[in-house]
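User: Assemble these into one structure.

Assistant: Restating your components, then the assembled model:
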Amino acid sequence: MIPYRWLLAGLATLVAALFLASLLVGPAGISPGQGFRALVLGDGGPMTLVMREIRLPRALLGILVGASLGLSGAAMQGYLRNPLAEPGLLGVSGSAALGAVLAIQTGLAAAFALAVPLAALAGGGVAVALLLLLAGPRGGSLTLILAGIAVSALAGALISLVLNLSPDPFAASEIVFWMLGSLADRSFLHVALATPFVALGAALLLPLGRRLDTLTLGEDAAEALGTRLGRLRLMLVAGVAAMVGAATAVAGAVGFVGLVVPHLLRGAVGARPGRLLAASALGGAAMVLAADIAVRLILPGSDLKLGVLTAIVGAPLFLHLVYRTRRDLA
Amino acid sequence: MTLLSIEGLTVLRGRCPAVDAVSVSIAPGEVVGLIGPNGAGKTTLMRGALGLLPHRGRSSLAELPPAARARHAAWLPQAREIAWPVTVGTVVALGRMPYEARGAAADAVAVTRAIDRMDLGAFRDRIATQLSGGEQARVLLARALAQETPLLLADEPIAGLDPAHQIATMDVFKDLAAAGRSVVVSLHDLGLAARFCSRLVMMRAGRIVADGAPAEILSPERLADVFGITVWREAAPEGLLLLPIARAGAGR
């Protein structure tokens, strides 16, 4: 097994390399040398505009969204002691999507630039309030999952209702495309909006490592080892909600990253849920950056959506992992 | 000095008390066997005493803040859960969680000591979830030993172990007691309880019905009354030998 520090250093290097690659890929056809000169020095021309206003925010959002999904997924799996858990389980992403959908449908999205992400964040906030109301401060992990499923289902039904009753086919197709998930055409406003939430979420989730480790022994033993389960659950819900809410707000629904990344890295950290947190944050960032580069390379002309690609690649990958796990258990 | 004192502890399960106004105290150097039929409240008493369940009455353990309690008492639940495929060494090292401030060297020594004590040296780098049930039970007990607390509460730690490891485990408890620490252990093997425990606490329907030296607690009359069994018993050089024979009143 690779030493933990080397693993993190390797993943960080990978993220940095993909970040640079992400800056160099795009329809404008800028050469690497020109691109970096335009980015750093600024020539006042269109090349600087492309690098600074289009590619840089896109690459930064790739890191923010990917790290959010990877870290939240690892935290959820560690808390629920279940490799099938994923960040969407809390219903925050569904509710955030509902908020965005309402903003698009009501025309608020056309009124000002940040209407969609702000409405999505508000939707996520409503989901957290509902969750805490339903699962309570003392509820167990099962209550939390059930409450999350209920919130998800309700949000999904309401999105369907909006689409169902939408009088405007353009708004309806815009909603559908937004929900596919993408990092295209985002600006620094999106980066500025997401950053504080992602930072808050990371600050809440990353310190949970040792407590998630104790949960390996079950809730009873963890509590007897000094882990305060109520506080752990509160920090987890708040952290996952902040990160997933922000990710959904700026990128729409990007599936499978939060599920697959912890799976891929579990073996490399010796299955320790605490160590999986930082590793999955880096791994998620790498995966989303890579996928976002791929959508620009595979079908440059037709705006392939990021969420579509992560699902298309993620699902078979997940099947392969399930197959391998099955063989290990047999 | 006592390691644990419980006064009038009541734990409700639904509306009926699973533990009913129980008072007991544990002194250093004891191996206290907690015996009683299924549903007598043994597990609930230990979890209530640790403060893991809402309760009335007082328990000196439950009054401690969680971190301090984890340095005073280790808890080995009956459910043998290892959720992730981590190594045996990793599982045992979880017992060092309450000592965040201490150096890694002290932790490593404690972990190795616990692993050796449970005869797990050869398993240290194996994946814990791939071991047999009995081996996993020993790994989890080693985790509780690595916590190096004055008090250990263990819920049926020897169930499912082979005879040699059952005896070895009870020997470990005896050694702990000889070193001035105490163990509260629930168990159903009355023969081992008779020979290895320094004191037995017998429960029925949420109450303590007897508390004292094994030879005195395990009288034929009381075993017939509380457990509904007849036993063969004999004082031997190895200690009190006791074997359940039949249900009391069978063939009635």
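Residues 211 and 227 of chain A are 6 Å apart (CA to CA).
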